[in-house]
Design brief:
The protein is α+β, with helices and mostly antiparallel strands. It has helices spanning 21-28, 44-57, 126-142, 156-164, 195-203; strands at residues 6-7, 12-15, 65-71, 89-96, 110-112, 114-117, 146-152, 168-173, 188-194. α1 packs across α2. It is globular, with a radius of gyration of 16 Å.
Length: 204
């Protein structure tokens, strides 16, 4: 199984590839998009390093990785997913790599859910729509035992997405920061969806 193209009602999600690099640069050039990650825009060299790491991680667990999402009319409500990425607007980067961070388990059956949307596409329910599709892929196709998601405690918007797709709060923790940003003193939160939760959620 390779990393597949995924579809939702409004989004076409294609596996991250080198052709998408300029879109990653565009996404990470907005400091508001990275407010709770770096607190600033990233340089082109920093994005290139992230791009290389993402592609490398995408090959470690079959089916997991990163997707670039495209929508019609910016993914506005009532639209349908484009047939091809060239026919749609870039929405953002959707993430489901194997858990790999310093505060994450070293377990190939655990994936990390993430989402980074262009600011023009915020507050349209697109992160929740993409996350639901990624959870379905993680459990029903890849066969993961657990999916986690982490964000800063002060990032209530991201936590809202986690709650909306049925994930539950696990813990608050306090990682060390190389470059501290506002809000770090409140720590980070972790949410999870286990296979048992997913099966119960899907039945409902």
């Amino acid at each position: 199984m390779t990393q597949p193209t995924l579809r939702t009602a409004r989004l076409l999600m294609v596996p991250l590839a080198d052709r998408h690099f300029e879109l990653e640069v565009e996404l990470d050039s907005d400091p508001e998009v990275l407010r709770y990650l770096t607190g600033r825009a990233r340089s082109r060299d920093e994005v290139a390093a992230s791009h290389a790491r993402r592609l490398a991680l995408s090959g470690t667990v079959d089916g997991l990785g990163y997707w670039m999402a495209f929508g019609s009319d910016g993914g506005a409500r009532g639209t349908v997913a484009p047939e091809h990425e060239d026919e749609g607007d870039f929405i953002g980067l959707m993430m489901l790599p194997p858990a790999h961070g310093p505060d994450q388990p070293d377990d190939p059956t655990v994936a990390e859910l993430g989402y980074r949307l262009a600011r023009r596409c915020w507050r349209r329910g697109l992160a929740s729509e993409a996350s639901q599709a990624l959870l379905e892929h993680a459990f029903d196709t890849v066969g993961q035992s657990r999916v986690i998601a982490q964000t800063m405690t002060v990032n209530v918007g991201s936590q809202g997405v986690m709650k909306a797709v049925g994930m539950r709060y696990v813990r608050t923790y306090f990682p060390s920061w190389d470059d501290p940003i506002p809000g770090m003193e409140s720590g980070e939160v972790e949410y999870e969806m286990t296979r048992e939760m997913w099966e119960a959620h899907s039945t409902v």
